[in-house]
Amino acid sequence: MSTSPAPQTEPLTVAARPELTGGRRIGVLLSHGFTGSPASMRPWGEHLGALGYGVVVPRLPGHGTTWQDLNTHRFADWYGEIATAFDALRAEHDEVVVGGLSMGGALVLRLAADRGDQVAGVMVVNPALATKRLDVKLLPVLKHLVPSFPAIANDIKKPGVDESGYSRTPLKAIHSFIGSWPALIADLPRIKAPLLYLRSPEDHVVDGKSEPIILDGVSSTDVTRVELPESYHVATLDNDAPTIFEESAAFIARVTTS
Q: Is the CATH code 3.40.50.1360 the one for domain 11-256?
């Protein structure tokens, strides 16, 4: 089985053009979700790049290859990739805004909790850090018995769209992600950065349990919630993608104004 990444799953980097952003270099870090790839964030990143922002969309370890490869990686690997990308952006830009889809939302919330005022703003699309599903309680046992569950990829309302995700959900890897939730929930009050929360009311991957935990947990006084009524979980590729692009561009411009 080939593990060569498909072109659309490759990381994305767009150089900042400060002449378009008031003479300041503004960086944007975007993270894809679990079993996904940069393909789910590429249109968003390209839109922001065209506005002059320096954009980086890393490919998280174990993604864009095979689900078996992903099963050998853990939350610390994915967070390490995001933290490294953030530090590189910080070194070259005046301010950095972070954003993520699903697990990517949890990763950038973790980053905002850890890095404080280094993060100019946080944008999350259908972030996951809790679930009503009862079968997750069985993961500590199931992960040793069954390598994978059916896929969670491609929860998209718009016909004919493929997020280039995996055909299976690796259990050891997702158990590691779920295991990161309690510490992040406990640290949500450390997040004070402005927050843009984008949410699909019909989401077949992330249920409604995460939203009140996040919105009630953060200390941010600048919180904007935007509903995505015509999209499912992968809203960055769905019918409401233009809303995400426009709202995020306005948010970044506002929170990085010196």
A: no
Task: Please state the rounded mean pLDDT for residues 244-255.
Answer: 98
% pLDDT > 70, the chain: 95
Q: Could you tell me where the DSSP H helices lie in 51-116?
A: 67-70, 75-92, 103-115
Residue 103 among known ligand-binding residues: yes
Domain boundaries in the chain?
Answer: 11-256
Phi, psi of 100 (to 5 degrees): -160, 155
Q: Taking Cα atoms as reference points, which of 174, 175, 217, 177 lies closest to residue 197?
A: 217
Residue 237, CA atoms < 13 Å, CB-side half-sphere: 25
Residue 22 structure tokens: 């008031």
Tell me the pLDDT tens digit for each residue of 58-82: 999 999 999 999 999 999 999 999 9
Beta strand pairing status for 12-14 and 54-57? antiparallel
Predicted confidence band of residue 4 (pLDDT cuts 50, 70, 90): low
pTM of the predicted protein model: 0.94
Where helices occur in the chain by DSSP H, the ranges are: 42-50, 67-70, 75-92, 103-115, 139-145, 171-179, 181-187, 210-217, 241-255
Q: Which residues are the active-site residues?
A: 102, 203, 233
